[in-house]
Design a protein that fits this description.
Layout: H1 7-15, H2 22-39, H3 46-53, H4 57-61, H5 67-79, H6 90-102, H7 106-117, H8 124-152, H9 161-179, H10 185-199
Helix pairs in contact: 2-3, 2-5, 2-7, 5-8, 6-10, 8-9, 9-10
Length: 210
């Protein structure tokens, strides 16, 4: 695909302090995730992303330092929740998180995550960016809703908060890597209700419908 990028215009806008084209950012993020799902992280290159998006490499490097930062940023934009839910109950907050997860494109999401996670053990740059921008961001969401439940008196302060926060993403990744199937609503509800909530001292019961 021929590049349709206009380096001169884009460069002037950037160095002149005017914002870069957000629609182009979205196209580059989408191209990165589509290619990641199709060919995996190891074969993914900035050249391929640029060609797929019909852009120039300079456009990418004006926005991201490299493919690790671009891919994780794209993933964050796809899966980010605007703010931690605050429904007034811990179960309600987890139900909101499940609703958000269910709204994602499950099959593309699974292929993207498999392509990404399989590269983590041997790519230190990707591992650092993924941990700092993705894992820790989502961990903060879980810590926030658990802390609010403690403040409301729903649960006692957990002694093993870090381990509890790690359980849900660990089981999601385990399911993806061992079965290739994206987690569905039933999976999330079982993990939250039968594993996470009991670890927080709540008896197992059905999550509320929201």
């Amino acid at each position: 695909m021929a590049a349709i990028d206009s380096p001169d215009v884009d460069s002037v806008e950037h160095h002149g302090g005017r914002p870069l084209d957000a629609s182009r950012d979205d196209a580059l993020r989408a191209s990165a995730l589509e290619l990641l799902a199709d060919i995996g992280y190891d074969r993914l290159t900035i050249d391929k992303i640029a060609a797929h998006a019909g852009a120039g490499k300079a456009t990418i490097y004006r926005r991201w330092s490299g493919k690790a930062e671009l891919v994780v940023d794209a993933l964050m934009c796809q899966k980010a929740m605007p703010s931690p839910p605050d429904t007034g109950t811990l179960r309600g907050d987890f139900a909101d998180l499940i609703n958000h997860a269910e709204a994602q494109d499950g099959r593309l999401d699974a292929e993207v995550m498999i392509g990404l996670v399989s590269a983590l053990p041997h790519d230190a740059e990707l591992r650092d960016v993924f941990r700092e921008q993705f894992i820790e961001t989502h961990a903060r969401t879980l810590i926030t809703i658990i802390s609010r439940a403690v403040e409301r008196g729903e649960i006692a302060p957990p002694a093993n908060l870090e381990m509890i926060v790690d359980v849900l993403p660990a089981l999601v990744l385990q399911r993806l890597l061992t079965t290739g199937n994206p987690p569905d609503r039933e999976f999330f509800e079982r993990v939250v209700d039968d594993v996470v909530l009991p670890l927080l001292g709540l008896r197992s019961t059905a999550l509320p419908d929201t």
